Amino acid sequence: MLEKPKLFGNLITQVIRPNLCTFCGACMAVCPVNALWPVGEQPTLIGACAVCEICYYQCPTVEFSTEDVEMFLFNRTRRLDEPLGICRGVFVGKATKKEIQSQAQDGGVVTALLGCALNQKLIDAAVVASRDSKWEAKPVIATKYDDFEERGH
Questions:
Q1: CB 56 within 8 A of CB 7
Q2: Virtual CA dihedral for 119, 121, 125, 131, nearest 10 degrees?
Q3: In terms of C-beta density within 10 A (0-12 exposed, 13-18 middle, 19 or more buried), how is residue 19 classed?
Q4: Is 56 exposed, middle or buried (CB count within 10 Å of its CB: 0-12, 13-18, 19+)?
Q5: Interval 105-149: pLDDT, tens
Q6: Dihedrals φ, ψ of 110, to 5°?
């Protein structure tokens, strides 16, 4: 038996009516026929639905089938001894630069990778976490590797 398509009507019954909608706008943004529009701070069907299911599966509130994802990615579902899911491997790493290790929270891998990506012009900038003189967290835009060292990363 074919499963019924997951349409905007499913979002109404599963997300909007139970007041679980965060009004993130994802469903409206992905609608290929612009049939969804915000009305009274909730997505509303204002046109003909294309029956594509994209809005339903874009919703962060809707649970997806982990079994389907596992079958797609690994061609099997998790075993009882894999409560966190299937993985190809678990790895631990740390930055090779001592100045990163000395200031890093957990080995500095992310800082080292972002610094490398900036230096090699793979990315233009990175939004990273920093702190002010009162140790309060603040976002910082790093555009070069030296920005990590100057701002206490």
A1: yes
A2: -10
A3: exposed
A4: buried
A5: 788 898 889 989 998 999 999 988 888 888 888 888 889 877 765
A6: -65, -45
Whether 2 is in a domain gets the answer no
Q: What is the DSSP letter of 80?
A: T
The 3-state secondary structure of 120-143 reads CCCCCCEEEEEECCCCCEEEEEEC
- Domain of residue 28, residue span: 8-74
Same domain for 67 and 104, yes or no, is no
> Which pTM was predicted?
0.46
Report the alpha-carbon distance of residue 5 to residue 121 in Å, rounded.
44
Please answer whether residues 34 and 47 qualify as being in contact, where contact means their C-beta atoms are separated by less than 8 angstroms. yes
Query: Can you tell me whether residue 41 is helix, strand or coil?
Result: coil
User: Is residue 140 in a domain?
Assistant: yes
Q: How far apart are CA 6 and CA 10, in angstroms?
A: 6
Tokens of 1: 């038996």
